[in-house]
Sequence to fold (352 residues):
Amino acid sequence: MTWGNKAGHQLPDLIESEAELDEILSRPMQETVETVSRLDGDILILGVSGKIGPTLARLVKRAVDKAGLRKRVIGASRFSTPGLKEELEKAGVETVQCDLLEENQLDNLPDASNVIYMVGRKFGTEEDSPLTWAVNTLIPAMVSRRFRRSRIVVFSTGNVYPLVPVSSGGADESTPPGPLGEYAQSCLGRERIFEYFSNKYGLKTLFLRLNYAVELRYGVLLDVAERVFEGSPIDLRMGYVNVIWQGDVNNIAVRSLELCSSPPEIINVTGPEIVSVRWLAERFGALLRREPVFTNREMETALLSNASKCFKLFGCPTVTVERMIKWVAHWVLIRGRTLNKPTHFEVTDGKF
Ligand SMILES: NC(=O)c1ccc[n+]([C@@H]2O[C@H](COP(=O)([O-])OP(=O)(O)OC[C@H]3O[C@@H](n4cnc5c(N)ncnc54)[C@H](OP(=O)(O)O)[C@@H]3O)[C@@H](O)[C@H]2O)c1
Fold:
């Protein structure tokens, strides 16, 4: 049985395979196809081989094909995951393997009027913070120079905000930055570098402050579900989270290309719900037939964003939290493959 939503997408009750999951995550909305039709030039995705990039690249290619266009869709990355480069090429995405910390490698990238920037480093910051700063601020400087005539949608993070009182409903785009810890500080650095070049060259850019993308192979929901299933304790100090289905993130990222501006536009990207981690674990407990184990108690503050501006611009997300919970619980029960990349959403001191 399927159910529809206002975007006209048919979504299944449960997802049974990675092929089905990838198809849903890379499904372009009609509005995305229309955006792609209006854009001049090719589309380049930098940092394409991470958790989000592969489905985003496929979505862009499908939108281009659906619009009947001959635009090139190019993905560049180190391609640390074996086989991914070939998979993307099979889907019609051109690939360039490069380490963007090596300056001369940027010269090998093709020109593109549209760039989606997804390069980043988070985990391992405590062990090698200079590398995190280099990836998160030096590469943006080199990319800004190289693509100063392009429009660039930059994946940023809600971590640039401080923890806010849960009662506030979350930080909105006017909330002053207050990044906690070096990873978050370097992410604000990433924005500031793009902003500097936007001011200097008129580079048209836009920051997507995302927290947290969810699909079945990784994400906050999977982290909580796995802990409930294994009987591992769930730390409640970071007691509330925002989440958004990654397919919605992908569509928003492409549609944002039309909104790039100088000075930069900023958009919080997440779902409308403030999700209680305790409630989430209890929902998973009911679906997985397990009793969740908790430690600590909810703090009065949490990493929360208010994404009202995003909903005004692009409409509400097409997948609800309840739907995501059912999909994730089923994925855990059928032992679906995971990326083994926990989000560490429970971190309260900014140390990753
Ligand atoms: N996923 C989320 O929920 C979330 C939440 C908030 C913000 N974000 C932001 O959104 C962006 C994309 O998210 P993600 O989860 O897909 O990130 P990710 O899994 O960490 O992917 C980062 C990408 O950057 C590439 N990269 C890193 N260093 C590079 C270098 N020197 N040269 C070339 N490529 C390099 C990686 O390539 P290889 O893998 O091939 O090494 C990978 O493709 C990130 O910047 C992150 O800050 C994501």
About this structure: The CA atoms of residues 263 and 342 lie 35 Å apart.
